[in-house]
């Protein structure tokens, strides 16, 4: 029986197969096989014995995960309790499955942390690739949406209140900039293999293969896995974990902004946006809930705390192997990857189906009876009428007097020649919105 199918985390359902226990087990086995292959690559192990080992444990190719190794994930999990990590019982299970002549090369010279850290980097690589694919889908959809609504004037809101005119397109372009920055950040994350031996000195590898071969072993190990080569063991220098975690949090943050805006703008009393297919209610059949936005936002509310846990663990990575801080990283990083997978996939679907109610946008823009351009009136009319008079006009309009008439009377009294219709038209006070919407960002290109 699987512990977590996503019943209480629906944002992840259908998107987390790359971070399951089974996927983590495949990554652990892959790391073990890659180490044996690395020994052969540097000339320290007989190639035929390593090939037999790799074949028995499901090795397919460089960079691919081992499958068909026959290890039962539940049994391994139960056996891992005694030693505090799954590698200790895994080594014995792997040795049972390879030819006797090759058993000496299973886990040779390695420590559990070498295998666990490397496996987590493999899991992160697979998951991050999927997250990036979803982010690029969202980027493409947002680009089209922004272009389609580039000139559609809407009310910008600051601190929940109408502020000045903006456009629907610029709002989407702003979301897109956040997505593209997240793509750039996540794409740049380095995922190194881990290989240091018991105390991070590689002493066991030197003893087994000699200094020259031991020095070449980490690069050979990383090459077999498709990971980057570490400049040194990072048993207690946890930047690979925290930098990945930060990039994932930034990604989910960017998606959370989109979700929060869509949820707000789809409220019944606002109604400017709607998801392509809203969710229903168990009690109120008239409702079309912004279900995708709700799911993405649920991930955004959880992600920062997971990132903070990774930093807390990194700060307590003492000695040459932490007592508990390292262990706390495993489920935390995996859950953060899981949330990023679900949030990015749901966000891509959300923006692809996003709809605009142009009538609602126009109605909301007109709610303040023209005062959406109050800032412009202050800039243009204050030199003609004085600040006090402009303030009085705005105050009177706020009490319900027609702004158009107030402005026309004041301008006529001052003897000025202004196009009042153009002055009061919100479409004429969107600044560089069209240019900002059309200008691509350099991030993620």
Quickly list its features.
mainly alpha; two-stranded antiparallel sheet; 17 helices; 445 residues
Please characterize this protein's 3D structure.
- By secondary structure, the protein is mainly α.
- The chain has 17 helices and 4 strands.
- The strands form 2 sheets. The protein has a two-stranded antiparallel sheet with strand order 1-2.
- The radius of gyration is 29 Å and the shape is elongated.
- The model is unreliable at about 280-285 (pLDDT under 50).
Radius of gyration: 29 Å
Coarse structural class: mainly alpha
What distance lies between the first and last C-alpha atoms, to the nearest angstrom?
44 Å
- Range of strand content: under 5%
Q: What would you call the quaternary organization?
A: single chain
Judging from the principal axes of the Cα atoms, what is the shape?
Answer: elongated
Query: What does the largest sheet look like?
Result: 2 strands, antiparallel
Total helix count?
17
**What is the helix fraction of residues, given as a range?**
55-70%
Query: What average pLDDT do the residues reach?
Result: 95
Write down the secondary-structure element order: HHHHHEEHHHHEHHEHHHHHH
Order of strands in the sheet with most strands: 1-2
Question: pLDDT under 50 segments (min length 5)?
Answer: 281-285
What is the β-strand count?
4
